[in-house]
């Protein structure tokens, strides 16, 4: 799972860059907001009840999740997948990019009259600059071209709040920034966003449709969509203001029963919650008996408890790849899939629809079969996506291509499997340096949430020669939220409590959320122990001196963490808070101050957290 603080101050950067954009591209123009009609009818993909001659028909379910606006190939290790070879060795394959995803999906659909394309949330939010600069309108346009049939909301769909999510669905120009292309009004999504468990806390009604019904030549499949109930824990309070997020199992059961009453027996659920597979390779068999197989995490309990009326799950949120079978409460096989993230994979699930029972056949012999496929970059690019990317890149170029620093090699962040990430050290140091001066907050320690590091800093761009230049666009991709930094007082006891919350509590689950720490703070993480004991309290030191539980320390962190995000409740107890610059601004300032073409920034050694296994 990952932290998800929202981007709040994009309008300010857009305003600052508007003159440049207008002079260069001549396309920024304000326009009154419009609205497209909402999706208030079931989607019908055919007429009549033809093809009655066969009792069963195969329905293709193509799915993906957690695109996060990655229209261009993701940079660094975020743009690769690992494949296990026949001899047991591992192969790393460059993957992702909507030009290739479009070709992959269009190719997969050929020969399949009954084909559904669905997604499990986080299509937008935490996006690279090329789409994030324009409030993810380019991503919705690309998904329309992909012929996406339906998606659930994810936690990132709430990064900019309910009103902006509704604009993504219905269309209209941005209320503050207007229309981004002269003479064009944003149309909104051609597909329905589903939010079954997200309700208005005053009315109790879902803010979007809870489900849709896919129809084609007599075949009817109900699709329920929802996000994780813990969304408020991974989004700032402003992003989910006035909303309630209900339990996943209770919500799915409720709407599965409603669909069943309507005569819709075949049901698929899109849920933005996931698990952790035993293997890191996308193609390892999740159902192989023995040690090292299967998945763990929240989705397992959900899949085991949800009514047998649901025939398949498409999941997301954890950015992992798996295609597993988990028996439903009646003991029948049910597929649970996830296609990693960033458009690097897609899942192809075969559903056998029985016209007589109007349900999906799920017996041990005839059951849904799911396979993940790599969106490799050896395939042709979809020309319409190439054109879309070029158009939006032209608008963003004056801001995106500005050099802001230099690196001597890849500095891994999102793509690092280590608890202490090299890029995490850089970001935490940038925050400490910016807020250490007495007039800026007097920070002694800085903490960075790992989920807020959205990418690596790659030495070269995808498909380009290495040059070590860090552009504004690359930096934005790493830190896209522009959360405001805060400095506050925490006692030594509270500091240790924060560290213990990394490895204890129900929010953080089986995968610890290890905070990235600034230079000077060191401690030992002992994984041979359990819970809070994994933090060796006697090892927690600042500049070599043990942390004094009774002493007060000035701590810097972004507003998401300071608000208790990701389950770090102790941050909410901090006193004497002072607001500083945005996390992106301090990151940019650090890159500028500590690197040049002749003296690029080297990857740090990442020696602050000693891990015992």
Give me the secondary-structure topology.
Layout: H1 10-25, E1 43-44, E2 56-64, E3 80-84, E4 90-94, H2 98-109, E5 115-119, H3 129-132, H4 137-145, E6 150-152, H5 162-170, E7 193-194, E8 198-200, E9 211-216, E10 219-227, E11 243-245, H6 248-261, E12 266-272, E13 276-277, E14 295-296, H7 298-305, E15 312-315, E16 321-325, E17 335-339, E18 345-354, E19 359-360, E20 369-374, H8 383-400, E21 403-406, H9 422-435, E22 445-448, E23 469-471, H10 472-478, E24 484-491, H11 492-501, E25 516-517, E26 521-526, E27 535-542, E28 545-546, E29 552-558, H12 559-562, E30 575-582, H13 583-594, E31 609-612
Parallel strand pairs: 1-9, 2-5, 5-6, 6-7, 10-12, 12-15, 15-17, 22-29, 26-31
Antiparallel strand pairs: 2-18, 3-4, 8-11, 9-10, 13-14, 16-17, 18-19, 18-20, 21-23, 22-25, 24-29, 24-30, 26-27, 27-28
Helix pairs in contact: 1-8, 4-8, 9-13
């Amino acid at each position: 799972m990952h932290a998800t603080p929202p981007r709040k101050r994009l309008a300010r950067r857009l305003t600052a860059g508007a003159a440049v954009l207008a002079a260069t591209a001549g396309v920024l123009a304000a326009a009154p907001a419009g609205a497209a009609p909402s999706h208030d009818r079931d989607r019908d993909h055919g007429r009549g009840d033809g093809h009655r001659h066969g009792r069963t028909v195969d329905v293709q379910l193509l799915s993906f999740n957690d695109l996060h606006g990655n229209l261009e190939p993701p940079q660094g290790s975020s743009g690769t997948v690992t494949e296990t070879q026949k001899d047991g060795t591992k192969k790393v394959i460059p993957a992702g990019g909507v030009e290739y995803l479009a070709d992959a999906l269009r190719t997969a659909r050929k020969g399949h009259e009954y084909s559904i394309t669905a997604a499990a949330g986080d299509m937008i939010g935490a996006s690279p600059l090329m789409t994030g600069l324009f409030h993810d309108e380019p991503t919705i346009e690309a998904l329309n071209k992909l012929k996406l049939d339906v998606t659930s909301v994810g936690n990132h769909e709430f990064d900019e709040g309910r009103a902006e999510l509704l604009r993504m669905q219905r269309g209209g120009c941005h209320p503050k920034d207007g229309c981004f292309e002269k003479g064009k009004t944003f149309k909104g999504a051609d597909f329905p966003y589903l939010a079954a468990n997200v309700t208005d806390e005053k009315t109790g009604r879902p803010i979007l449709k809870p489900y849709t019904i896919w129809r084609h030549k007599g075949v009817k499949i109900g699709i329920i969509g929802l996000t994780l109930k813990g969304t408020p824990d991974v989004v700032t309070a402003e992003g989910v203001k006035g909303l309630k997020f209900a339990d996943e199992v209770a919500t799915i059961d409720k709407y599965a029963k409603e669909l069943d009453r309507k005569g819709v027996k075949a049901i698929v659920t899109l849920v933005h919650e996931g698990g952790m597979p035993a293997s890191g390779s996308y193609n390892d068999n999740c159902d192989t008996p023995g040690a090292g197989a299967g998945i763990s995490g929240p989705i397992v309990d959900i899949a085991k408890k949800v009514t047998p009326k649901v025939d398949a799950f498409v999941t997301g949120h954890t950015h992992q790849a798996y295609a597993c079978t988990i028996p439903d409460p009646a003991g029948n096989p049910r597929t649970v899939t996830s296609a990693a993230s960033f458009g690097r994979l897609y899942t192809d699930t075969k559903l056998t629809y029985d016209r007589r029972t109007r349900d999906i056949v799920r017996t041990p012999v005839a059951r849904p079969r799911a396979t993940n496929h790599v969106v490799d970059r050896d395939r042709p690019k979809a020309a319409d996506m190439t054109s879309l990317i070029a158009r939006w890149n032209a608008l963003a170029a004056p801001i995106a291509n500005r050099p802001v620093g230099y690196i001597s090699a890849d500095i891994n962040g999102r793509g690092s499997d280590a608890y202490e990430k090299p890029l995490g050290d850089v970001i935490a140091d940038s925050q400490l340096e910016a807020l250490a001066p007495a007039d800026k907050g007097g920070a002694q320690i800085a903490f960075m949430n790992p989920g807020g590091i959205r990418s690596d800093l790659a030495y070269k761009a995808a498909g380009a020669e290495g040059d070590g230049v860090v552009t504004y666009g690359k930096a934005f991709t790493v830190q896209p939220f522009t959360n405001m930094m805060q400095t506050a007082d925490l006692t030594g006891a509270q500091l240790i409590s924060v560290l213990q919350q990394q490895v204890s509590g129900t929010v953080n689950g089986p995968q610890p959320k290890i905070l990235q720490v600034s230079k000077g703070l060191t401690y030992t993480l002992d994984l041979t122990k359990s819970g809070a004991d994994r933090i060796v309290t006697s090892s927690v030191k600042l500049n070599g001196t043990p942390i004094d539980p009774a002493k007060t320390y000035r701590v810097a962190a972004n507003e998401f963490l300071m608000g208790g995000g990701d389950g770090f409740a102790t941050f909410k107890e901090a006193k004497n808070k002072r607001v500083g610059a945005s996390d992106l601004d301090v990151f940019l300032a650090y890159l500028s101050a500590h690197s040049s073409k002749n003296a690029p920034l080297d990857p740090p050694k990442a020696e602050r957290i000693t891990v015992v296994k």
